[in-house]
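RETRY 2/3 - previous attempt timed out on the joint model. Re-submitting the same 204-residue input unchanged.
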Amino acid sequence: MLTSVDPDVIRVLGDPLRLQIVTLLARETLCTTHLVEETGARQTNLSNHMKVLREAGIVETEPCGRFTYYKLKPEVLAGLSEQFAALADSARTATENKRACP
Amino acid sequence: MLTSVDPDVIRVLGDPLRLQIVTLLARETLCTTHLVEETGARQTNLSNHMKVLREAGIVETEPCGRFTYYKLKPEVLAGLSEQFAALADSARTATENKRACP
DNA sequence: CTCTCACATCATCACCCGCTGATACCAGCG
DNA sequence: CGCTGGTATCAGCGGGTGATGATGTGAGAG
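RETRY 2/3 succeeded.
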């Protein structure tokens, strides 16, 4: 399969702050306040990034009183892992598949 | 390990054109001319992206006469795959690790 | 030797994107 | 209820980034 990885998800994870958020969320479920403390970013900035992550389907929200908890969707990361593994696998055999010079 | 994935590599792969290039190179080793044909992008544009991919350590160049062949470095993709797998694994158990509301 | 082609580099421009401040919304609590 | 605090949304600004054209370099053909 010519499974090209979904560029959107990768682009979303390409931002350093968002990647930090994802790394934090991979350890524990956190709410916005915690993320503000951990990252040092402004709340409004965080909220923006969380929206991006939400729309990319990487995180889920879970309201708890007036707090909003975020947790990762492991299957998305697992999917990425698989797709990269497939690319790596394909790349290993591609070294010999050299198209002729024109 | 709190192996946060390298943001640089991911950001490089976040660009749709570069991801297309990587997908193509995962199938066969190609030179710039082939990539121009396949992607429809300008040569100078391609060369820019190839430079980015080269500096990110994702591809290797192999001169062949006056042509330059590019091939992927599978270990980079494999590393990404592992790191995402680790994140996904960690995320699966993180759902219960909910930090208390402040 | 010279000319041509493949490729890389440089400088420039325009545009997208993330950061910021202001503001609206919603849930508890008194 | 009204107030307070946590969160989301919106408009605007500035910097980073990708696309483009001109130019340089090096290898092979004639």
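The longest strand of chain B covers residues 59-64. Closing ticket.
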